[in-house]
Amino acid sequence: MEPTTYIVLSIVWVAASSGTGFLLAVLAKRIHPSLSLVRLWLVYTILMAFLVAVVFLIGWF
User: Fold this and answer.
1) Which of 21, 28, 32, 47 is the most buried (most CB within 10 A)?
2) Domain extents for the chain?
3) In terms of pTM, does the model score above 0.85?
4) What angle do CA 40, 48, 7 make, to 5 degrees?
């Protein structure tokens, strides 16, 4: 693949992980109002990025 493909894929990966992480954080914040939205967002963003990386690796092999 070309380097621009990797750049575009990385941008989409970060944007999708961040967006879904934020949505999951908002839902979790509604269930547990005492938790920090920023920390929830960070945790769910990392979780989503890891899951997408696993899917990419499975698809690559």
Assistant:
1) 21
2) 15-60
3) no
4) 120
